[in-house]
Amino acid sequence: MSIFRNHTPKRRNINGEVKSYGDHREDLKLDFKDRCGYCNDIDNWRFIWFEIDHFIPKTRNKKPFLTIKTETDYSNLVYSCRSCNNAKRNKWPSNDENVPNVNNEGFIDPCKDEYNNQFNRLNSGRITPNTDLGDWMYKAMKLYKPQHEILWNIEQLYILIVEIRELVAKSPDDDIDLMKRLIKLYNTYDDYIQQLFKH
Fold it and tell me: CA-CA distance, 122 to 127, in Å (whole number)?
């Protein structure tokens, strides 16, 4: 079992006027460390599919919903992969924008430390829920999708590749065993990349 994520994103206090919430993209990328606030996938391999979610939805049931903040309010924005953004959509079980969850249904802002307690990762990289509220979010945001496991594994393999490259650089002698491991690791990494494009 692994921890779900090593870092809780923290939004800076950004209050400047912007024309569109999309103008906050670069600030969100920075504050969320290039990761989806909900599933923790990194945008390295899927940047084009990363979006900006309104934590409190702008609309519910085709009617305006967000009144306590503006649609460009930075404190309500989440850097999100398309998968999580589309799955979350305008779900808000309490129907009260001031109440993000009730009776173990709803959401926790991913910038709150308690969000981390809702999930774990199996050694395979699969996300699993820890709590009843975590289970609701897990299902609502479809965190069971294989892409999250695949992306986590690609990232772990990339970390190992970097470590092996550093070892090779430190001892440039022909270490056949090290090179074989590097090639095997790269091939596994490449297999996961190919799987990713299928999902």
Answer: 7
13 and 110 in a single domain? The answer is yes
- pTM attached to this predicted model: 0.85
Residues 6 or more apart whose CB falls under 8 angstroms from that of 156 comprise 125
Closest CA to 5 of 28, 29, 45, 35: 35
C-alpha–C-alpha distance, residues 13 and 74, integer Å: 8
CA distance 58 to 60: 7
Tens of pLDDT, residues 18-55: 999 999 999 999 999 999 999 999 998 765 679 999 99
Amino acid identity for residue 27 in this structure: D
Q: How many CB atoms lie within 10 A of CB 150?
A: 22
Residue 144, number of CB atoms within 10 A of its CB: 13
Torsion angle, alpha carbons of 26, 30, 33, 35, to 10: -20
Does 161 share its domain with 97?
no
Going across the sheet that includes 119-121, the strands are 2-3, 119-121, 127-129
* 78 strand-pairing partners: 53
Instruction: Give the domain extent around 45.
Output: 2-144
